Amino acid sequence: MPKNLAAIKKELDARIGKPLTVTSQIGRKKVLRRRGILRKTFPAVFIVELDQDESAVENASFSYTDVLTQNIELSFEDGHD
Hints:
The chain is an alpha+beta fold and about 80 residues long.
């Protein structure tokens, strides 16, 4: 992923509608992986529509700062991270 917030947003803008996996660090050795589709980007956050088979929540929002600080990791199914 790019090294600044504007570049991260620009890259995600180009991938709206693409399937992805969001990996979140939720504890010392705990990782949460959720699959979904990138739906919208806003100036400070982006929205992922989560797979209903895996999650009770329909949508989740994440900030570009989470990506920059590596609190979450995005893996797109086209092989480009």
